[in-house]
Every structure is written in structure tokens, then in C-alpha cells.
Amino acid sequence: MDRVGLGWRGELAASILERLDAIDVLEVIAEDWTRAPAREQRSLRALGRERPLLLHGVALGLASRHAVEDKRLAALARLFETAAPESWSEHLAFVRAGGHEIGHLAAPPRGPASIEGALRNLERARRIVGTTPALENIATLVAPPASPMDEGAWTRRIVEGAGAPMLLDLHNLYANALNAGIEPVALLDTMPLASVRLVHLSGGRWLRPPGLAPRLLDDHLHDVPDPVYTLLETLAARVPQPLTVILERDGEFPAMAHLVSQLVRAREALASGRRLARRAA
Amino acid sequence: MDAESFLARLYADEAFREAFTAAPLEVARREGLDEREAGEFARMDLPGLALAAESYARKRSGRRGPRD
After folding, report:
1. Do B67 and A58 lie within an 8 Å CB cutoff?
2. Domain CATH code at residue A60
């Protein structure tokens, strides 16, 4: 059964608890909690009794030729054990290399070195945390140089090689497609759709540097644009497996009713896609 | 330096990025990338690099940015 939920943010906590009727599942940012005292981490277990909890990592840097630090995996494993989430996810990104901390999720050169490194890191993560994370495609404002593979082929090699579920971020995909000048649906079709279990929706804004082509920045501060709901409908029409869709909002928070209206639109897009699939069958 | 570390430094080190932008091929070779990688970095999207680096710098400075 498809599910629709929301990213847990402290600013939204009271509103979320008031509107659990509209929320099937909650996603929690792991790094917001890994350094919290055990007592606070255990509060996540209580939250998980209200709605299934998904843990979302943002700082491991799994898609790297370099090894993820043990201490980061160990901290995640402790949180996983204490909070008892339904599952966890991380990004197909690197965040540091060669002693340089990027401070954010970046696309590594897409080639054999990052694929092999990602598979090694994923195996260690599986051993230490206990399960393989769902892997999320990231947004990037620049195509990584020294990349003999395109995003879809590279993503498939890692997701399928690790036997991991995929967390498909449709706004990231939308932004990458527009920034690269390709059709979003064409990029969608290169992804390992049979592995998709989770979906992220969010919004962004256009950067318009003088004299240069505009680029779409995924900033999680704006509403989900209409074409992203259409991509969700397309995805739901193309895959038979249940999807869990999470709306991400990191700031400039609107009224809860407005966020709930976006959850409703996501449910409608899912239902519409499922109807299309039934008609085509 | 491997290509991934080179890219991380381009994002994180403003002075290095400025030197690269002024002479991409020369800097890539000097840092030890092989000739194929150096050539690919020399052809990279420099406006995109600048936008991405600015976005990452905002994140490092603690201003709110995207989670993913």
C-alpha cells in the first residue's frame, strides 16, 4: 500500500502531532539525533509508536572512493538500535575527500572508482548498522567532471550492485534534468525503477546569474512544483511496488494546512498513476 | 591527488578554485591528475562550479540550506 508522510523538523513538531491523521509515516534526519543523549534518542522510539519512522542520513558520504569513517557508522548504528526505525536511507553522494570537507552532498566523478568505493562503503554500513540503506539520488548544480558514466547508469550500478532499495528524490531528478537540458521523464527512465521503495518530494528556486543560463536549486524552502507531482504520477504508473512518499521542507515553513494540502496532492498523484497502470494492464 | 579529492578541494578551497579557474589544465596537471582527467576538469562547467561552491559555502557557514 502506498504511504505519504512528512520530514520531521523541530519547527513542525507540534503541528505534525496535531495532524497525524494526514500523515502515514515520518522521516527523521539522523544527524539531528546522533549526538543527542540516549534519553532523547529513545523519544524517537516513542514517536515511532505514533507513525512508522524512517531514519535519513545526510553526512556519511557513501558514494566515495574513500572509506566512510567508522565513528560515523557506529553513531548511526547506536541511533538505529535506540530509535528502532522501520528503515534508513542515505545519499549517493560524497561530502569530503582528501581532507577537504565540502559541507554538503556533492556528486563524485561518476565512474568505476566511486562505484567500487560506494559498494565497499555500503557493505560496511550493512555490517555495522545491520541493514542496507535506501539510496537517494542527489541534486547537483554542476555535472561532475571525469565521469565516464551518466547519472542513471552510475546509479543503477550502485543500487543494483548493493541490492539496495532506492529512495528516488523526484525534485532532485527534475532539477538535474532541467539543468542538463534533458527531459525529466527521460532521466526518470534511466533510473533503477524496480528498486524504488521511497520517494522524496520538495521544491526549489531558480538561480539566474547574470549572463548565464538559469539553474534550478533544490532548496527545500519552496512548494513542490506541479511537474514533480506529474513525475510521481508517472512513477506510480510504471512500477507495481508500494511507494512511500515523503515531503521534505527545511525552512520558510508555511501553515500546516498548506503542507497537508501537498500531502493530499501526492496521494492524488499516486492514485492517478495507479489508475493509469490498471487501465493499461 | 585523485579526481574526487581534487573536486572536493575545488568546492571547499576558494583560493584553489580561483587558481583553477584562471588556469584549469595547468592546475589539474600540477595536482597530479592524469592527462585524461586533467582534460576533463579543464572543460568543466565553470559557472556551475562557482554556483555549486557558493551553495556549499553557505552550508558550511551554517546558513540554512538544502538537506539533500
Report:
1. yes
2. 3.20.20.150
The complex's ipTM works out to 0.92
- pTM for the predicted model, two decimal places: 0.96
- The residue type of A6 is L
Q: Which residue has the cell 545519499?
A: A91
Domain boundaries, chain B: 3-59
Domain that includes residue A146, residue range = 3-280
Q: Which of B2, B55, B65 sits opposite A65 (nearest CB)?
A: B2
Judge whether A112 and A81 are in contact, CB under 8 Å. no
Q: Is the dihedral of CA A227, A222, A173, A262 positive or negative?
A: negative
- Closest of A157, A166, A271, A142 to residue A215, by C-alpha: A142
DSSP state of A128: H
- In chain B, residues with a C-beta closer than 8 Å to the C-beta of A176 are none
Number of domains into which chain A is organized: 1
The three three-digit cell numbers of residue A26, written as one number: 515520518
d(CA A211, CA A214): 9
**Separation of alpha carbons B32 and B9, rounded Å:** 13
Nearest to B8 among A96, A200, A204 (CB): A96
pLDDT tens track for A42-81 = 999 999 999 999 999 999 999 999 999 999 999 999 999 9
For the stretch B45-61, pLDDT in tens is 999 999 999 999 988 88
